[in-house]
Amino acid sequence: MTQAFGDNHAEGISILAQAVIWASIRDRVGLACLGLLGPEFIIVLAIGQKSSARRSVVKFHEEGYKQWTITHGFFADMGGFVLEADDLNQPIPLNAEQLFYLVKNSHVRYPEITAGELRDRNKSDGFAQLVTVWQATWFIITFIARLIQGLHVTTMELTAVSFVVILFGTAWCWKDKPSDGGRSPDQPYYQTPLDFISRDETALNLAWQYYNELSRRILFSPFSRRVKKIPWDRIPGDIFLRMDFDLELVGVAFILVFSAAFLSAWNFSFPSTVERDFWRVASIYMLVYGFVGAAWMELSMWIFVPQNRVAQGLELSIVEKELAQKSHPFRDLYFRLERWLRQKTRGSSDVDRDSLVPRQPHKGVLAFFEQISQHIVRKGPQHGSSNRVYCLYFFFMRFISRVSDFYLCGRFH
Global pTM? Predict the structure, then answer.
């Protein structure tokens, strides 16, 4: 195997060259489209990436690699490191978990690149982010000042405020993230031969892959640049990673603030009663969607998707097994409630927590959430008719909300 850092060659890993201009622009446009579709997706994406990068810092430091920083973790999860080997047809990208496994087991050497070198790749973008945050802050200040003075504001401006709330959260999560991981250099394995270490199968990530594939079958997907090679030759920038619990709480808070922001226009003076009632119904929908979406994300990420994989005879990755053994307040509460209900109904509180395999079917709302997760895991776009309905319904509702913003903006004036 060969390892390259810049122009130096040793043994193990390569650092990808800077991304070609078009690929970089395409990825940024994809994230922008994702933000228009649902800004809350961006905060979940950013928090998952920050959580993964932060976990990698803990693991590398425990092995004595104190120079590994959260910037390294971001860079790795962006596909900045690739593995080259004689028996590989092409270099394959390594995320932070996979790189840690290879370094820990002495399969490759630790990549000697400093955080400063990684930050040098991001100087112009760092300034642009600072300007963007300042402009967003000034917009919020002027918006609040106009409300205090009793001046007129439009629903379009209120929607912009809700987007800015998410922008602040993502800016904080990505403040240590390099701008580009590298160039762009389904299945015995899904992504790379190292899936057994870390395979990103969060429910939201599976749903997002499903949505993109459905879009391509209909026409094309403006959101994600497709990975056409197996094994993967790059790591897409829109993979939703597992979040740490403390950062999950931050994400849920941002999502609920975003979802509730539209209610602040409840008593606005609308051009007509019909338009006022339409806005109120849409605002309630956004708030309910925020709560339901957060609950589904938690249940699917930590319970239903791992359960479904085990039930199908699929082995969990090393990272999934590690996380299953660690305490998680939401999952622990779920299993305590399940034990309590089992004891009440069957006189037994035995729940196989480690295998994550349910012993009886769920009912009610839990059954609905689990059904969605099962369709996402088991079925592709050509089979999952119910998922197709969910995706199209979500897209339709968001499209209507954006159109109504423009319509009401014109009506207010």
Answer: 0.73
